[in-house]
Every structure is written in structure tokens, then in C-alpha cells.
Amino acid sequence: MQRFLESVSVGLGLGLGLNTPRGVYAQAPGPSPSTSGLALEFEALLELAVAHPSRHADRARDRYRHPAETLAFFGVRPDMRVAEYAPGDGWYSRLLAPYLAAQGHHRVLPLDPGSRLCRDWPHEEEERFDHVLVLRVMHRLLMGEEGRRELLRLRNLLKPGGLLGIEQHRAPPGAGPDHADGANGYLPQDLTIVFVAAHGFDFLDASEINANPHDRADHPGGVWSLLPTLACDPQREDAHRAIGESDRMTLLFRRRD
User: Span 175-196, mean pLDDT?
Assistant: First the structure.
């Protein structure tokens, strides 16, 4: 996977650890959801979903994860068909389910037990979704060659022109290829954009909604040293709690056709 990223990066005239030139990626015509924003009535529904009773235990993390702002940046409307990749314990699912219940559709794509891959879905679901969300799990796709196949499968779920929203733990600027395999949970933002763009997507926009300048991304235990896992030396727990959750990139792409 690292060799693949390096070859694509060179082909696009990029170097490892450099900022990606925005002009490399075609902008789709018309305003992107990140600049046009959600209609006011959609924003109101999103706020109601954030306050939903099913999220009572989840709301403590809202100050780190900014769910309403993140979904608004991605342009997730309540009338969309949305697929959520590898939802983990369902933190975002408990928000998306009530938000999409009345007019849209929420499809969870769980991982196969013991696998880095998602379970197969029916062929008739392909090209049926307006949006696919990959939230804090992109590093899993870069841990092996199967990640390339998985991203193409996600592309096939989207309708022509459908959107892909990615939130991912971010390696520091200038991070070298040792961060390209996702083993510590962090990825370089420029290589993430290159990887996704090489699999049939146009890069639309990036947001600093989930940035955390206090996270230097140099923890011996990787991103799992921070909240909510705190898999670190007990003597470092207080310092890691003070950091909060990870520094994260928030990226928006559109299926290229």
C-alpha cells in the first residue's frame, strides 16, 4: 500500500509530506455542500437529532467530535440515502438514525468479524446512495492491499455524483511514509487525498472543524493513547485527558463519472 501511494503521489507531482495542491483535483460544477450549507430547516432537524434521547451518553464527546458541524459540512440532508462504513460502537449511528428516519435512509455497513473488510451487500444496492461516510476508520483501509478494493466498492454504492465524507486522525505536517500504513491510527492528509482521488473521486473541500492543535500525534500507543480509549501509561492519563481527542482531517469528495 505504501508503494502504491508513493507511485500515485509521484505521478501527480506530489511529494510525501507536502501539502496537496488543490488544483490537482477537478471541482465538480456548482457549489459544493460545504460552501452552500444546509437549509435552515435541515439544520434545525440536525440539532434535534443531536439532542435525541438515544444520545444521552454520547453527548459528552460532542465537544471533541462536533457532529452537527461535521454533518453540515458534508452536506448530509435528512432526505438522503446514507451509508455509514464500519460504524464501530454506533456513536454516529445513534445520531444518523433519527435524523434520516422520516425522509431518508440510514444503512450501516459493518465489518466482517476478524476482517478489515465490510460484509458484502446486495448487488441491487449499488448506485442507490447519495452519501457514504467513513468516520475515523480510514486507517484500516490503508493497512493492506484490500483497502483499494474496499474503496472501489464504496464508490459503487454511490449514485453518479454521490458524496463521500471522511473524518480521519491526522498525522503532523511533514510526516513521512512511515505514517502511510495506518498502523498508529494517524494518516497524512495529503496522502489520504491522493489515495481517495486515485479510486474515482474528486476532492471538493477540507475543513478544520475537527482540528486539535494540542495533539502532536507522537504517542507511543498511537491514537488509542488519547480519549476515549486512553491506552497509555497510567502516569500519562491526566496529560492525555487534557489533550482531548485526536487532531483530525475532515474531507469531502464526489464520485467521479
Answer: 87
